[in-house]
Amino acid sequence: MSVVNKLDEEARNKTALYNEFKTQKGNMSKKDGANLAGKDLIDVLTPDVVKRTGGPDDDFIMTEHVTTVPLIIPRGQEEDFLKFCESMDQYVEPQSARKFEGMDDKDGNSLWRVVMFRSAIDAFKKACREKRFLVKDFEYSEEAYKKLKVNRANLDESVKRQHELVRGLY
C-alpha cells in the first residue's frame, strides 16, 4: 500500500472515531432536555438532591427485603396516586409515598418514590401500568453517579482531542 493510501486510511479512521464520540455526546445532551420519562434518573437524583443520612427518613431505603421504587406521576394525578398507594398496602409500606420536590418537568410530571417489599415489585409495576403511572428501574448509587461524571468528562476530552486531530487533517 502506498504512503498516500495509508495516510488516507488513517484520516478516515480518525474522522470516524471523532464522529462516533460526537454522536455519543449528542445522545447524552438530548436526554438533558427530555421530560422525566425520557431522562436517566441518575442525572436527576444526584447526591446533592438525595437525602442519605442512614435513617428512616432517607429518600432511598435498600435492604435485603425492602427497596425504594421511583415513579413518574402525570400532572393532576397525584391524589389518585396517593389513594392507589394506600390501597396497595400488601405491597407498599403505608405512607411511604414521597414526592421529590423541585423535580417536576416542563410537562408537569412529578417524581415520587415508594418503599416496598422486593418480592412485590413485579405485581406493583403491573398495577401501576394499568393506572398509567410510570415505574422507573433505578437503584440509587453515589458511586455510579461519580463514575458517570468521570466517563462524561473523559468523553468531552476525547471529543476535543479528536476534533483537533481531524481539524489538522483537513
From TrEMBL:
**InterPro entries, alphabetized:** ATPase_V1-cplx_csu, Vac_ATP_synth_c_sf
Per the similarity annotation, which family is this? Belongs to the V-ATPase C subunit family.
Keyword annotations from UniProtKB, A to Z: Hydrogen ion transport, Ion transport, Transport
- Species: Polarella glacialis (Dinoflagellate)
Would you name any one GO CC term? vacuolar proton-transporting V-type ATPase, V1 domain
Q: Can you state the subunit structure given in the record?
A: V-ATPase is a heteromultimeric enzyme composed of a peripheral catalytic V1 complex (components A to H) attached to an integral membrane V0 proton pore complex.
Which PANTHER family has this protein been placed in? V-TYPE PROTON ATPASE SUBUNIT C
The stretch of residues making up the signal peptide is none
GO molecular function annotation: proton-transporting ATPase activity, rotational mechanism
Pfam families for the chain? V-ATPase_C (PF03223)
Q: What is this protein's record name?
A: V-type proton ATPase subunit C
Function of this protein?
Subunit of the V1 complex of vacuolar(H+)-ATPase (V-ATPase), a multisubunit enzyme composed of a peripheral complex (V1) that hydrolyzes ATP and a membrane integral complex (V0) that translocates protons. V-ATPase is responsible for acidifying and maintaining the pH of intracellular compartments and in some cell types, is targeted to the plasma membrane, where it is responsible for acidifying the extracellular environment. Subunit C is necessary for the assembly of the catalytic sector of the enzyme and is likely to have a specific function in its catalytic activity.
Lineage, highest ranks first: Eukaryota, Sar, Alveolata, Dinophyceae, Suessiales
